[in-house]
Amino acid sequence: MFARLWNVLRSRRLDRELDAELGHHLESLEAEHRAKGLSPEAARRAARRDFGGVSRTREDYRDQRGLPMFETMMRDVRLSVRAMWRAPVVTLAALATLAIGIGANTAIFSVVDAVLIRPLPYPEADRLISLSLRSRVMRIDDLESAAYVYLTQRDENRTLDGVGMWSLQAVNVTGREQPERVMALRVTADVLPVLGVDTLHGRYFTPADDEPGRRPTTVLMHGYWQRQFGGDPSVVGQTVTVDGAPHDVIGVMPPRFRFLDQRDIDLIVPVQLDRAQVFAGGFGWPSIGRLRPGVTIEQASEDMARLLPIAADAFPVMPGFTRDQLDGGEWEPLLLPLKQDVVGDAGSTLWIVMGTLGLVLLVACANVANLILVRTEGRQRELAVRAALGASWGRIAGGLLTESVVLGLAGGALGVAAAYAGLRVLIGLGSSSLPRMDEIAIDGRVLLFACVVSLISALLFGALPVLRYARPRLAAALRTESRGSSGSREHLRARGALVVVQVALALALLVSAGLMIRTFQQLAGVDPGFTRPGDIQTLRVTIPASSQPDAELTARRQEAILNGLAALPGVESVAYASALPLQPGVTQTDLLVMEGGRMDAEGELPQNRAFHMVSPGFFSAMGTPLVAGRDLTWADLYERRAVALISEDLATREWGSPAAALGRHLRGGSSQQVWREVVGVVSNVHNQRVSEPSGRTVYLPALMELIAGQPPVVARSVSYVARNARAGTPGFLGDVQRAVWAVDPEMPLADVRTMGDYYGDSLARTSLTLVLLAVAGAMALLLGVIGIYGVVSYAVSQRTREVGIRMALGAPRTEIGGMFLRQALVLTAVGVAVGLAGAMGLARWMSVLLFGVSPLDPVTYVAVSATLVAAAALASYVPSRRAMRLQPTAALRDE
């Protein structure tokens, strides 16, 4: 208590001493203003305004006299808030600028953190791997594994704690209020133990559940359990009917469980793999494994390579194939970290976007530095007086930096709020194009990132004022020339340098945005192989073998549904296919042998080609032109004629032209498959994404004889396409559902979308990148224009007297305006020159995102440079025009 009382008394004594010393300086300032013709009261107010820092100077004086220093930080913060409050316009402009820059970077970091940095949500996720195969001979970079490989890896490996095999399958769930088409995850009993997760209720599969012939069981995903069973734990032990077969519910998964990046799974069912029916071949099974502690991927790859010949020897080759064909692929194991397999190529897009938004933050810091420079320049007298009264360089520098840090943290807080709002939009834009989107959140890691970025930004824009003004020269500051002087060229050079940086960064960002716009234009100009996608309604229907085992009767029922859809008002054409263009996850592939084709002529191995099983009229319904030959007929299906149609690209590659392909024959890789005559050639269609080359595709009848003398094969899961101007409307969807249920009331509908939706999804990642880069470029352009406007406005205000003298001596007003306009254009030209070099480097970095556009596209560079110069000219025109309107007598009198 006595110490506190002593400090109070000492503080009052120091205040009295300070007031005495300050009096002398204030009197000298008042004398200067009275000499300019101001009244005593006005001169006193002007002196205190010029002095500006009485509170700060009092604190400096106390520190100089030995007041304890532990209060310094909080005192500086308090005084910094007061200083910001005294300059609300500058403060609000700086806060808004920082909120934009920090908020954008915080939002994209939350995406990068969730998608790329954070480990998968499984125990010891760094030990999880994906297992697939590749063949350099067959030019296959990544082929999903096979059952015979999995069984050998499971039983014979020396480096894995476990390996599991899985696949996705759409299934019908019936026996409840309404039939439902849901996605089921088919797994071996090893999959969940490999991931290290357990059930919320009940149990997971055991090896007994995986044995063929056992009564089927199922585990419910948490969302499906909540939606269909109201979260009732007693569901364990009940029965659900899946594809016509009863499955016992044995467990429920926890709410946060997500299998890799699959978002729509409702059920998990066992594979029930019959080892006696496994052949060497039959690829298409994704596999995951867990490395033993201390084992590297390289060591595991060597172990898997050892097992491949063992696996080929342990199982018979698929009927119709030979061991030489299998060995001719020269298969190699491809092991990747599971996280890398889940994320795919999204990393390049996100790092590029984050890098460009980092440049936006640099532009924002340069803009704020300009604002702080102007404000600090007006406080030179205050800083000079503080130095004269004994404030050290460190004390003044610390005060200026504290103001910058307070401003930076306040901008960061607003940026976090902006990031939270923007993140909702970002997730909506990227939900169909980026993995792990459901894991994105503003958490502690993201808040720490925002705090660090705010501090770094504060140091960046706060360093320049500190270096320039923390060592004020008292005499020079007190003799600072009045407003009518020609101004400080040194100050203009400093602000001009910042503007050059802003313009250079803005140009680099605008070039990247321009290249993405050009990319999007190129993609939008690609012919996907079908017309008017918004008018094509699609829906998927599955007739499982358990409900209709006969292949021909299945085809008859599919035709009945087709006829019901064709009878709906406004429907132009209807057809169906096993897979649609741009529809993810359902395209089938097979080895293809071409009679007299180019591959045979060169002695190459059969290549994997996509094939679709289609109904008659499919190409007409899709708007895919028939290039040569004829379409399929219903007689081709029901008489099981050995015919096929192929894409134009495949016909040209194999036989030179579409016409030359007619009458040729092809078959699958198995020698037991029948040879099929090519009766038609259709235009190329993009099967995966429009950014990828159109597929060399084979189209087969939806009902056909695959192997001579064997029962026919039918496409049991097909997507209908109905061309109608009302596609996607609730009324038309209701008509579609009634038409299907008129044939089979237990038939659930799935994938009820338009082809326009699929087309939009194929452009989703490009659209997301385009939007983000366009926003980044627009923000950089706006900040750069503001910086140019500020520099020219400052130059006009500082050179008012010079302008008055020039005009009094007869200088034309256009010459005065041109002087300031030239200054802005020179800064812009320097910034453009610097920015072009940076833009070329950035464009080469983002070349992986471009399609049909060169990273050095001259159209983009010229258009962006012209836009930036025009924006700079417009920004400098307003202050230049203000200079032209100055009256010489008024300008000189004001000075």
Describe the structure.
With 895 residues, this protein is of the alpha+beta class. 53% of the residues lie in helices and 16% in strands. It contains 30 helices and 25 strands. A six-stranded mixed β-barrel has the order 3-4-9-6-8-7. Strands 15-16-21-18-20-19 form a six-stranded mixed beta barrel. A hairpin with a 5-residue loop joins β3 and β4. α12 runs parallel beside α26 and α17 runs antiparallel to α29. The N terminus is likely disordered.
Which descriptors would you attach to this protein?
alpha+beta; 6-stranded mixed β-barrel; 30 helices; disordered N terminus
What would the principal axes of the Cα set say about the shape? elongated
**Radius of gyration, Cα only, in angstroms?**
37 Å
- The number of helical segments is 30
- Intertermini distance: 56 Å
- The computed structural class is alpha+beta
Number of strands: 25
Q: What is the mean pLDDT?
A: 79
Portion in helices: 40-55%
Query: Biggest sheet, strands in spatial order?
Result: 3-4-9-6-8-7
Instruction: Please give the largest β-sheet.
Output: 6 strands, mixed, barrel
Assembly form of the protein = single chain
List the helices and strands and how they pair.
Elements: H1 2-35, H2 40-51, H3 54-64, H4 72-86, H5 88-117, E1 128-135, E2 140-146, H6 147-156, E3 160-174, E4 180-187, H7 191-195, E5 201-202, E6 217-220, H8 222-229, E7 239-242, E8 245-252, E9 265-270, E10 283-285, E11 287-291, H9 297-314, H10 323-328, E12 332-337, H11 338-343, H12 346-377, H13 380-388, H14 393-430, H15 444-469, H16 474-478, H17 489-524, E13 536-542, H18 551-566, E14 573-577, E15 588-594, H19 598-602, E16 607-614, H20 618-622, E17 626-629, H21 634-638, E18 643-647, H22 648-655, H23 658-661, E19 665-668, E20 676-682, E21 697-701, E22 703-704, E23 713-714, E24 717-723, H24 730-743, E25 750-754, H25 755-762, H26 764-798, H27 800-808, H28 813-845, H29 858-884, H30 888-894
Parallel strand pairs: 4-9, 6-8, 16-21, 18-20
Antiparallel strand pairs: 1-2, 1-11, 1-12, 2-10, 3-4, 3-7, 3-11, 5-8, 6-9, 7-8, 13-24, 13-25, 14-24, 15-16, 15-19, 17-20, 18-21, 19-20, 22-23
Helix pairs in contact: 1-2, 4-14, 5-12, 5-14, 5-15, 6-9, 12-15, 12-17, 12-26, 14-15, 17-26, 17-28, 17-29, 18-24, 26-28, 26-29, 27-30, 28-29
